[in-house]
Design a protein that fits this description.
By secondary structure, the protein is mainly α. 77% of the residues lie in helices and 0% in strands. It has helices at residues 2-8, 11-29, 35-59, 61-64, 82-104, 106-130, 134-142, 144-154, 159-182, 184-190, 195-198, 201-224, 230-249, 256-277. α3 runs antiparallel to α5.
């Protein structure tokens, strides 16, 4: 039975946000890791994300039953009731938000709130079903965990935190569109107006390349502003160049779904490597360029 509750939290999303939270924490820590602070930040953030994912499952029951990859979820199969799921989400959320408020700081708590509200309210309840701009809106929630990790250490929101937020939000676009092309039939059957469905796969490939370039520039800005070293610059640009190369291959692909699978899987590898690289590619001492 515990597996049903675990999968209700979407472990894949939890792992992704766990890694990006690590990335932000590592960049701010500059090699001086407070293990207790790191543990509390990761647990608190993960619980908040888990809470949002459970609520999303409750909201998306009608959509999930139309998609092959989600039709066997516990709420669709009625093995867990929506009421129980919401109570579960409430408990996870209270513990997660409580940890960030009492044991981390107000900045981390604020961005956890922003990420949760955008994911549950603006994305799940509204934009996912109604607008082609859903991915842009959802990217805000996906960009919150690295900022939580960063501000947990820094206790301020500076240029680096802003660049992390922008870069991780930009990454969400081609990553999400890659999934949508790979699962094209699922999204079409569910009537979700994401870019490949609402416009075309060809246009999605073009816009994906644009966002890969913008993501690369945002990450490079961390070096320009003095937050990372030359090792980061080399690793980041090599990874982004290969991601761009895969994107170019998409225009010659005979099977769009196979290409899209490769494209979005590499996006996961890329963001994981870059996030973990912050543990040794920071530049110390980092400049103090506060925003608020």
């Amino acid at each position: 039975m515990w597996k049903k509750y675990l999968f209700l939290t979407k472990p894949g999303i939890l792992f992704g946000n766990f890694i990006t939270t690590l990335g932000g924490f590592f960049l701010a820590a500059q090699g001086s890791i407070d293990c207790l602070l790191l543990l509390l930040t990761l647990i608190g953030t993960t619980l908040v994300v888990a809470s949002g994912c459970v609520v999303n499952n409750v909201i998306d029951q009608d959509i999930d039953q139309k998609m092959q990859r989600t039709m066997n979820r516990a709420l669709v199969k009625k093995t867990i009731s929506p009421t129980v799921a919401l109570v579960y989400a409430l408990v996870l959320g209270l513990i997660g938000f409580g940890m960030l408020w009492f044991y981390i700081n107000a900045y981390a708590f604020l961005f956890a709130v922003i990420g949760f509200v955008v994911y549950v309210g603006f994305y799940s309840l509204w934009s996912k079903r109604t607008t082609i701009h859903q991915t842009v809106i959802g990217s805000i929630s996906g960009a919150s965990p690295p900022v939580i990790g960063y501000t947990a250490v820094s206790h301020h929101f500076d240029i680096a935190a802003l660049l992390l937020f922008v870069a991780y939000a930009l990454w969400q676009m081609p990553h999400s569109w890659g999934i949508a092309i790979y699962r094209f039939d699922d999204y079409k059957n569910a009537g979700i107006p994401i870019l490949p469905i609402a416009r075309s796969v060809h246009r999605t490939k073009i816009e994906s390349l644009i966002y890969v370039v913008l993501f690369t520039l945002a990450m490079n800005a961390l070096y320009v502003y003095g937050y990372t070293n030359i090792i980061f610059l080399v690793i980041c640009n090599l990874l982004c160049a290969y991601w761009f190369y895969i994107g170019i291959l998409g225009f010659k692909a005979e099977d769009d779904q196979l290409w899209a699978k490769r494209f979005f899987l590499f996006s996961v590898i890329l963001i994981t490597v870059i996030s973990l690289c912050f543990s040794f590619t920071f530049k110390s001492p980092a400049p103090f360029l506060p925003i608020f």
